[in-house]
Design a protein that fits this description.
The complex is a heterotrimer. By secondary structure, chain A is α+β, with helices and mostly antiparallel strands. Chain A is 28% helix and 20% strand. In chain C, strands 3-5-1-14-11-12-13 form a seven-stranded mixed sheet. In chain C, strands 18, 19, 20, 25, 26 and 27 form a six-stranded mixed sheet that branches. A five-stranded mixed sheet of chain C has the order 9-17-16-15-10, sandwiched between helices. The chains are: A alpha+beta, B alpha+beta, C alpha+beta. Chains in contact: A-B, A-C, B-C.
């Protein structure tokens, strides 16, 4: 690991100011579950590491306008166990628990989870080219190993996927991300925090260098009480999603009043399925309608040579999850052993 | 840098710690506590599981500086002298140990699981221990050890 | 001394070193103390084939704490006959990840950082790392491991297939697999003058000592390898690995103790793996299901460094009766690391193909797959003509069928549904040879009433230390608490490797006989132990040479229930049962865990594990535990292992067959056969992952949506 300076920030101003002094080399450190690994792999090479886990952002509290304000330093396991999250936003609790392992959830913070990097094997191997790691070096995944990579929104420069489960739920819920930067505080909506690779795959998000995530705010959203997360992965647990879906549904008298759908494992961003939502709102809450909505969303899919399976998988998960929400069945969100 | 922390109830000081070292490295190479194992150094196997301020973490991913001032408990700190912790006893009795390399991390993880959930359902155990890979046992005897320890409850050390 | 105490072999004695392991006190190779240890980090090659044009250690040497950078430019030449171990011997690169240099430093962090700053220039050449059918470079090796002919023929297979009422002609593929023992390969090397001590993670300290001595031009007596606790091996620590020579080389170069532990990522390059295989199986049978022809033709890979030819078709030489038989192996030398031993080499991949084909034949014949196997049971070893020392595969199948609830199984595939799951069951047979190798042991009685047994055996998690304690206790006629078994040190009497499921049989023979000798000597001394103790030694070499000619194998049957969700491609295995006939079981507790551990690895072979070669850059792509999926706890559900007690007098003093490997044999076939029963689709390429199920979902009947 490249030598660096370690400092522990005690307030946000100090953290942001510290970063501003070494903008080329500074990085914020949350739980470290991804960044420490990337540093060991040589993928991340900060010269200044600013520990932000002791900042006073460790609480989950009611937001001023209703909804929930989640401090950026809240640990994933604490958030998953929070009674308000479990009651009002079950999709978020389920997504958190579907991610990583107990130990990693104990360490990982909300802010760090949002900013984790892709697990594309080429990105993590510094002896191979990768446009995300070294701009212009090429993307071997396009012709190489991309079985688990993107089917939506990718570019010729990058076909990586965003690995977070939590972010998929937050995207479905329309969370906002509170950011403190040199220019003060601002709010970034989700979707909108993460960006598609285009010709700048080295930029995962719209954040500027030195921007510090301080909180995530969930809007008051009644239909979120009926929401769930479903993830398909190669192992029964402790593996990244091949495809996942976060969905919330408000259906009455056989009609969809409102819904939220986001997909994981399919794109460089947690993918809000706006076309599917649009198709569903005001229409019948039937399996046929769910299928049509999934097809509307996936019409844009451009699978690569070896990941065409993700299209029918995403379709199936959308349809099933909506049907289960409508029927109040299939509580087995883990897909575990029957 | 200097890192001061409490390990298994004892205050410890490690000097000349390089910033890039992990808590695991400090424990194993500087403090002479090699109980927590290094098997992947990526948080993917759980062999380095220790308590950090009361919650179990992968020590390989904790930057040394983040452990400053922390309370750490490792597998070496569970037994009381010669008296094994009930979880350790159950691992022995159930035959949950083979090569022993995943064992320290698993013992700590099960210790934590049973402290939080004294009588967990099997599916919950399997999910809770998903972060602790074992290549020898197929987990069956480890599950038996968890059941045994749960049945015995907090019964005394042996 | 009493002789009428209860025998302890066969009981579930607690693991004797268990307490050290649950308390974290058991020391593994990297954890031994020594003064002033230097840390070693190897530099892996960044190309798959070519020549090193330059090594610039300048930036690395400038890192504070760095002591030296080793490479072919400055490392002394090593002797020995394994090119994988003659590190830094030339400027050639034979595979990506091969060690091309190493940094030795005061701290691990300095060594690791400096290793990234060693600038290696390459003249890369085109490489080929992909095994594929009909590879133009494929050839028939002179022999396959360990010393079988590559080709065997009986009768006229082609004619018999032409005449057969029912035939099956299928091709199966298995990918490369990595052993992935939890403990990374690690060594602490300490020189004292021209004497070398290596604390090392291996499957045999005598073997490692002999290799080290050969590599450094020393007498075996100048080298000691200490390995009391080893965190798993599964074959990958049988052949010594380059970290042991690297540690010794580095320690000598800097004049200090030096230690190295490979990273998980680097383990994928330099610690061996199971070759991928392409296996064509052709079976011919008469209308009643009696086989007339069996052909098993295998293609697999080796490296350009040395030939390693896995004996994949060998189980097809003994498993079933068929008057016409052909088995062949062809290998391709690719620009890859040399494949190596992994749990049940030969039998594991070979029986996957054979037992899958048997299931296909059962369907083709309209026979129950158990009945098909019973009908083709050979009376003697078909190719050698030798009698079986014991063969209870039919009993395993029958007993297993009863325990599993096989009776009344509807053979129709793709028709059972439980909610979103398609449900099926499958069966496969398993087998593994029962052999033993020469070993020596001593047994010593001391005046305090205790006994010490010494042998350079290895306990890599198998429970051998415990089993040997039981064997010694019974041979001595004393309770196991009075027996201390010392293993894992080449200073002890020479022993064979922990490999080939031969460990306990080989070491146990020597231990049992040494203990018998000691009892004789004690009896001769009137039962009195002299003040300075009394000792006996035994070498089994002559006994093994005199072993009568029998075909000695363990057998088993594996039963699986699977659930396949055709909409998501998910597969779950709610039930797995293995029934084994492996002679006398010495320790019920450790044996059951060994069987189940093997079955779990077989489950993962069927559904999870695959080392993906990187065609563009060489090496393996998914080289860590995040991307290479060994089973996690939740992948395993109700898994059980049982056994049939055998009384086989032709084996060894214990009457035991090895149990470390047979558990993985047949599991993948049982699961694959159950997947067919569930879905009606044959998946002939492992692993059967969600993407593969989904790609063929249109062929699966009765989808939900």
């Amino acid at each position: 690991m490249r030598p660096f300076t370690f400092v522990r920030a005690i307030d946000a101003d100090q953290a942001v100011a510290g970063y501003a002094r070494e903008p080329e080399w500074a990085m914020y450190l949350g739980g470290g579950t991804n960044l420490v690994d990337l540093m060991r792999l040589g993928v991340a090479e900060p010269g200044l590491l600013i520990d932000v886990t002791r900042l006073p952002y460790d609480r989950v509290e009611e937001a001023p306008g209703g909804g929930l304000r989640i401090g950026a330093a809240v640990r994933n396991s604490d958030l998953a166990a929070d009674p308000a999250v479990r009651r009002d936003y079950p999709v978020l609790a389920a997504a958190l628990l579907a991610g990583a392992s107990g130990q990693l959830r104990n360490q990982a913070t909300v802010g760090g989870n949002l900013l984790q990097r892709t697990r594309c094997g080429y990105f993590q191997d510094v002896t191979k080219p990768c446009n995300k790691r070294r701009s212009g070096s090429g993307c071997p995944a396009v012709e190489g190993d991309h079985r688990n990579l993107a089917i939506l929104g990718h570019s010729e420069h990058c076909v990586a996927t965003h690995p977070s489960d939590m972010a998929v739920a937050l995207t479905a819920l329309g969370a906002t991300v509170h950011v403190r930067g040199r220019a003060g505080e601002r709010i970034v909506p989700m979707p909108g925090l993460h960006r598609l690779p285009g010709d700048e795959p080295d930029r995962d998000t719209v954040l500027d260098p030195g921007d510090l995530i301080t909180a995530v705010e969930l809007p008051p959203l009644e239909l979120a009480a009926r929401s769930r997360y479903r993830k398909v992965r190669e192992r029964a647990s402790f593996a990244f999603a091949l495809v996942s879906v976060a969905a919330a549904l408000d259906a009455e008298d056989g009609a969809v009043r409102d819904c939220r759908i986001a997909l994981g494992g399919v794109a460089h961003v947690p993918w809000r399925a706006e076309a599917a939502e649009e198709e569903l709102r005001g229409g019948p809450a039937t399996d046929d309608a769910f299928r049509a909505a999934a097809d509307a969303e996936l019409a844009a899919a451009r699978p690569l040579r070896d990941n065409g399976y993700k299209v029918p998988l995403a379709r199936e998960l959308i349809v099933r999850t909506l049907a289960e929400l409508r029927d109040g069945t299939g509580a087995d969100a883990s897909g575990g052993t029957p | 840098m200097r890192v001061e922390l409490t390990v298994n109830g004892e205050p410890q000081v490690a000097d000349d710690v390089w910033e890039g070292e992990s808590l695991l490295y400090v424990l194993r190479e500087r403090l002479g506590l090699p109980g927590a194992k290094n098997a992947c150094e990526q948080g993917e196997c759980g062999s380095c599981t220790v308590y950090l301020d009361g919650t179990v973490v992968c020590a390989c991913l904790v930057a040394a500086g983040q452990a400053e001032g922390a309370e750490v408990v490792t597998v070496e700190g569970l037994a009381d002298g010669d008296a094994l912790d009930p979880v350790q006893r159950a691992f022995l009795d159930a035959g949950a140990v083979q090569c022993g390399f995943c064992t320290p991390g698993l013992v700590v993880a099960v210790h934590d699981l049973l402290a939080r959930t004294p009588d967990p359902a099997e599916a919950d155990v399997r999910e809770a221990l998903a972060g602790n890979l074992c290549r020898c046992t197929g987990y069956e005897h480890i599950l038996a050890a968890v059941r045994l320890a749960a049945e015995r409850g907090g019964e005394g050390r042996s | 001394m009493t002789t009428d105490i209860e025998r302890v072999t066969g009981t579930a004695l607690d693991r004797v070193e268990g307490r050290d392991k649950v308390t974290g006190l058991a020391r593994y190779a990297y954890e031994y103390p020594a003064d002033d240890i230097a840390y070693v980090v190897p530099v892996p090659a960044a190309i798959a084939r070519g020549t090193i044009t330059g090594i610039d250690p300048g930036d690395a040497l400038a890192v504070p704490g760095v002591l030296t950078v080793l490479s072919f430019r400055n490392a002394p030449p090593l002797a020995g006959n394994d090119p994988e171990l003659r590190i830094f011997s030339s400027d050639r690169v034979s595979y990506r990840g091969q060690m091309v240099a190493a940094v030795v430093a005061d701290t691990l962090e300095a060594a690791a950082e400096a290793a990234r700053l060693v600038h290696v220039g390459y003249d890369a050449e085109p490489h080929d790392v992909l095994l594929r059918p009909d590879h133009p470079e494929a050839y028939v090796p002179e022999k396959v491991n360990p010393s079988f002919p590559a080709v065997s023929e009986q009768g006229d297979v082609e004619a018999a297939l032409g005449d057969a009422a029912v035939t099956v002609d299928t091709t199966y593929t298995t990918p490369a697999y990595h052993n992935n023992a939890m403990e990374p390969h690690a060594t602490l090397a300490v020189w004292s003058g021209d004497r070398l001590t290596a604390y090392d993670s291996n499957q045999g300290s005598s073997t490692a000592r002999d290799m080290l001595a050969a590599a450094f031009g020393l007498e075996p007596g100048q080298v000691r390898v200490v390995s009391p606790h080893v965190g798993g091996g599964f074959g990958s620590k049988g052949t010594p690995r380059p970290q042991i020579v690297l540690a010794a080389l580095a320690a000598r170069a800097v004049g200090r103790p030096a230690k190295v532990a490979l990273t998980r990522q680097h383990m994928f390059a330099v610690t061996g793996y199971r070759t991928p295989s392409i296996q064509r199986v052709r079976l011919g049978a008469d209308a009643s299901g009696r086989m007339t022809a069996l052909a098993h033709e295998v293609e697999e890979q080796t490296s350009t460094l040395k030939e390693f030819a896995e004996q994949t078709a060998v189980p097809s030489r003994m498993m079933y009766a068929a008057p016409n038989r052909l088995t062949t192996h062809r290998v391709v030398a690719l620009d890859v690391a040399t494949p190596s031993w992994m749990r049940a080499p030969g039998e594991c991949p070979g029986m996957y193909a054979l037992e899958s084909a048997m299931d296909e034949l059962a369907v083709a014949c309209g026979l129950d797959p158990i009945e098909l196997r019973v009908r083709n049971e050979p009376e003697e070893d078909p190719e050698s003509g030798l009698p079986w020392s014991s063969r209870n595969v039919v009993a395993c199948l029958r007993e297993g069928a009863a325990w599993f609830g096989w009776a009344g199984r509807d053979p129709a595939p793709g028709v059972r549904r439980d909610g979103r799951w398609l449900v099926g069951t499958g069966v496969a047979a398993s087998t593994y040879p029962a052999r033993r190798r020469p070993s020596e042991a001593t047994a010593r009685a001391t005046a305090d009433g205790r006994f010490t047994v010494r042998i350079a055996a290895a306990d890599i998690g198998t429970g051998s230390r415990t089993a040997l304690t039981q064997i010694a206790a019974d041979a001595l006629g004393v309770p196991p608490e009075r027996v201390d078994v010392r293993i894992g040190d080449s200073a002890l009497p020479t022993a064979s490797l922990a490999g080939g499921s031969m460990g306990t049989a080989s070491w146990g023979s020597a231990v049992a006989m040494a203990c018998v000798r000691l009892r004789e000597r004690l009896d001769g001394a009137g039962g009195e132990v002299p003040e300075d103790g009394i000792e006996a030694r035994y070498d089994t070499a002559d006994d093994i040479k005199a072993d009568a000619a029998y075909a000695r194998h363990a057998f088993g049957a594996q039963f699986a229930e699977v659930r396949v969700d055709p909409g998501t491609g998910e597969i779950r295995v709610p039930r797995l049962l293995g029934v084994f006939a492996a002679g006398r079981i010495i320790n019920a507790k450790t044996a059951r865990s060994q069987f189940i551990g093997g079955m779990t690895m077989g489950l993962a072979m069927a559904l999870l594990e695959e080392s993906v070669p990187d065609a563009e850059f060489g090496g393996f792509l998914n080289h860590d535990l995040a991307q290479y999926h060994v089973p996690a706890n939740a992948d395993v559900a109700n898994i059980d292992a049982r056994w049939i007690e055998e009384d086989d007098p032709h084996l060894n003093p214990m009457g035991s067959k090895g149990i470390g490997e047979i558990g993985i044999v047949g599991t993948a076939a049982a699961i694959g056969n159950a997947v067919h029963h569930a879905t009606g689709v044959r998946f002939r390429d492992l692993p059967i992952r969600p993407d593969r199920v989904l790609d063929r979902a249109p062929q699966i009947g009765g989808r939900n949506l």
